[in-house]
Design brief:
Blueprint (H helix, E strand, L loop, with lengths): L3 E2 L15 H14 L4 E3 L11 H15 L4 E4 L5 H14 L3 E4 L9 H14 L3 E6 L1 H4 L5 H10 L3 E6 L4 H12 L4 E4 L6 H7 L3 E2 L6 H13 L1 H17 L6 H11 L17 H13 L3 H4 L3
Parallel strand pairs: 1-8, 2-3, 3-4, 4-5, 5-6, 6-7, 7-8
Helix pairs in contact: 1-2, 3-4, 4-6, 6-7, 9-10
């Protein structure tokens, strides 16, 4: 079962805004050297919304040839179950281990429409499913009873990524209802990781430039929870800084560019590049909080 540190892979572009697979290969090597439990592609921090199908396929195959049997989570879905099924089956053919699926968000569904959406998906797809519950991104709130009903009715739903603030309360409610039958993951750039661990998550899916920080917190959690708490509180300003709407993607990519892993920090609109003041703030923050990715560069 998927668990632990499953970062969202950032997507590299060159100066012309074209996919930069060489930079992506460097990033994957860095992540494998640090040790990760899986890797997620095409999520919000991957700019999956801004990639063509051809780019997604090229990116997936580039990653797959490097990681071997490491579990790969691919964000897939659509504005209807028919579109979602097509997309999910596509990433399954490519070799994804888990499909991470958001609810449809163009026409906002109610609880019954949400249930029908995942029912149709589970009946038509044979890959493990992760429900991404991220109303800040989709504008769709999935009630706890609906999530519980889906997981109980459809065994293909193996995981839920809980990103509805306050995530801690929803994690507790889901844990009480589902026990260990479904893996619960935190998101929101691990900004509530310590509290989520206290509530029973089995893993987290943050951005990808600080895997050693997440690994240290998860490792300490097993032996010394006070140490895990201290590590988390130390890096919380950095985790918080990287989850800002509109510029979060650029924050992750700027760090990777400073590290020499990405050739550029180019982001595709509607995401925004960093202004000079924000760039200065980020530089000060990373000088105060050491990151392996930057330490290796210096």
């Amino acid at each position: 079962m998927l668990k632990g540190n499953v970062p969202i892979l950032a997507t590299a572009f060159d100066e012309r805004g074209q996919l930069d697979l060489t930079s992506i290969e460097r990033l994957v090597r860095f992540l494998l050297q640090q040790g990760i439990d899986g890797l997620a592609l095409f999520g919000n921090a991957s700019e999956g919304y801004a990639l063509t199908q051809e780019e997604k396929q090229a990116l997936f195959y580039c990653v797959k040839k490097q990681v071997g049997d490491l579990p790969l989570v691919a964000a897939a879905g659509g504005a209807s179950s028919a579109v979602a099924i097509d997309d999910i089956n596509r990433v399954h053919r490519w070799g994804a281990t888990v499909a991470m699926v958001n609810p449809p968000s163009v026409v906002k569904p109610g609880p019954e429409e949400i249930y029908h959406y995942w029912r149709d998906i589970c009946q038509a797809c044979s890959i493990d499913i992760m429900i991404q519950d991220a109303p800040l991104m989709t504008g769709v709130t999935i009630p706890v009873p609906t999530l519980v009903r889906l997981c109980q009715d459809f065994p293909a739903i193996r995981y839920i990524k809980v990103e509805q603030p306050p995530s801690t309360l929803k994690i507790t409610a889901l844990k009480q209802a589902l026990g260990d039958s479904v893996g619960l993951f935190g998101g929101l750039n691990a900004g509530f990781l310590f509290e989520e661990l206290c509530r029973g998550v089995t893993g987290t899916m943050p951005a990808c430039e600080f895997p050693e920080v997440i690994n240290a917190i998860l490792s300490a959690w097993q032996e010394d929870r006070q140490q895990a708490q201290g590590l988390f509180y130390r890096y919380l300003p950095f985790l918080r800084y990287g989850v800002q709407p509109g510029i979060g993607v650029a924050i992750h990519k700027t760090v990777l560019h400073w590290a020499g892993i990405f050739t550029t920090d180019y982001v595709r609109e509607p995401a925004k590049s960093l202004d000079e003041i924000t760039r200065h703030e980020l530089r000060e923050l990373t000088q105060f909080l050491p990151l392996t990715v930057l330490k290796e560069r210096s």
